[in-house]
Amino acid sequence: MKKYSLQLLFAFIAASSLFSCTKDEITNGIQSGTVGANGLGAVTWVEGGGGAGTPIVCDSAYASAQYKSIFVYKGATTTRYFFEINLTSLAPAIYSLSTSGNAVAYERPGTSGNTTGAGSITVIINANNKLSGTGIVSIPSINDRVYITIKDLPIRP
Q1: Is the pLDDT of residue 154 over 90?
Q2: Please, which contacts does 63-67 make with residues 24 or more away whose CB atoms are closer than 8 Å?
Q3: Are 151 and 29 in contact (CB under 8 A)?
Q4: What are phi and psi of 10, to 5 degrees?
Q5: What is the DSSP-derived secondary structure letter of residue 23?
Q6: Extents of the domains making up the chain
Q7: Per-position DSSP letters for 61-101, written without gaps between them
Q8: What is residue 149's three-state secondary structure?
């Protein structure tokens, strides 16, 4: 009986070491591009400078399959950045903002909602309930362009 118990114990230890889980370290969205500040999909953007400036990283973001939209948040009430990107689909394609049904609203500290009409959003990947892509959008109130990068953004139903 003691021999059987010892064998059972070793089998349990071997099985638990084979099937144990490890917690992956969450890294900064700029470094890995897989998570944002709150562990969600990363959306980063740069205002002006040909996209060569310091990236701003979202605090939270998600895509909505129902509304075919992307929502991006950064900061609190007085330091808030906000994007709402509405597209005619979330399928991989290039979406011109001059096409009906495609639009971007961008708000940053010191401005109110800004709807843009120039530029495009490119959905590169829509797979496994995650979205990745890029965009260049003209923002009249800042008289410049915003360069957007989307990586592994969760898609909600």
Answers
A1: yes
A2: 63/90, 63/131, 63/153, 63/154, 63/155, 63/156, 64/155, 64/156, 65/90, 65/155, 65/156, 65/157, 66/156, 66/157
A3: yes
A4: -65, -40
A5: P
A6: 26-156
A7: EEEETTTTEEEEEES-STT-EEEEEE-S--SSEEEETTSTT
A8: strand
**How many beta carbons lie within 10 A of that of residue 147, not counting itself?**
21
Q: Is 48 helix (H, G, I), strand (E, B) or coil?
A: coil
pTM (predicted TM-score): 0.71
pLDDT over threshold 70, residue 59: yes
* Residue at 124: amino acid letter: I
CB 58: neighbour CB atoms within 10 A?
26
Report whether pLDDT(1) > 50.
yes
Q: In this predicted model, which residue has the larger pLDDT, 24 or 74? A: 74
Which residues are CB-contacts of 23 (< 8 A; sequence separation ≥ 6)?
none
Residue type, 59: D
Sequence-ordered strand ranges (E) for the chain = 42-47, 56-57, 60-64, 69-74, 81-86, 93-96, 103-107, 114-116, 119-127, 130-139, 144-156
Dihedral class, residue 124 (left if φ above 0, else alpha if ψ from -120 to 50, else beta) = alpha
The pair of three-digit structure tokens given for residue 53, joined into one six-digit string: 């400036």
